[in-house]
Amino acid sequence: xPTIFSSRDLDLARAKSLKLLVIGYGNQGKAHALNANDxxxxxxxxxxxxxxxxxxxxxxxxAVTTLEQGVPEADLISFCLPDLAMPEVFSRHVAxxxxxxxxxxxxxxxxxxxxxxxxPSNGDVVMVSPxxxxxxxxxSFLKGRGLNGVVAVHQDITGDAxxxxxxxxxxxxxxxxxxxxxxxxxxxxxxxxxxxVVLCGGxxxxxxxxxxxLVTRGYQPEVAYLEVVRQVKLLVDLMHxxxxxxxxxxxxxxxxxxxxxxxxxxxxxxxxxAMSEILDEIQNGAFARxxxxxxxxxxxxxxxxxxxxxxxxxxxxxxxxxxxxxxxx
Length: 329
Fold this sequence. Notes:
The structure is a single chain. This protein is α/β, with parallel strands linked by helices. The protein is built from 16 helices and nine strands.
């Protein structure tokens, strides 16, 4: 059984003696910093001098500092930046100012696992990865329940890495809900797989295919959009709140029978084989190399893929026309 930590496993008074630096004030950084500040943690937001986020963070009641000043003073240094931006920020604005015994905190293991960041050997390296985007981290905290996440220790030099990891989990609003112990590699590979195969890749492709099938067979785009796009949230919310079986118990008899009968026809053996191949590419580093090579070249493949997506019927017709008409009613 995996280890699941909760707030009972943390000395909160000792945790609040730590100085936190949250680098970045975007999707995750804003939520982490505000949640920590609301709980009375000693937290600062680290930004470049002249960053447009500087005044925004200060207006929210947060202390803001430059990385050059904030890094040497911090016990926990959290990277809340896009994966592609992180290595340069680390090498130019963080690594030269690190003090012995520091603790680097990552929300995703990609840059460590892929070797884009090689942390120094005189400090701790931990991960606290929430199971949702920044707005959910913040919203769940404000509702008093927090958001689950996974935690890992990659490097424990001080002997205090797990305490520091759980302290940051509490600060950013995950420990109250419970966090699962993992490794940087397991989190990275499972996260990439989940994004590509299910959450951000598989589900949109099924939705697109369903919309296109109905429209090409003569059904009204508005009806197709409501059936295969808008109702996704209903089903996801039911699965989140009640589980897969609970979701099926809440839907109609015809929906339950049809889903059990035909779901495997859509996601059949060919789909499972593709999933296995995608996981192989994630595990052996092929995906990371392709992603990083494309980014170094200026992103031509990313641009081509995005341009092709904009031409799909669901985007060109459903999003740009049908959605606007429905929202205008």
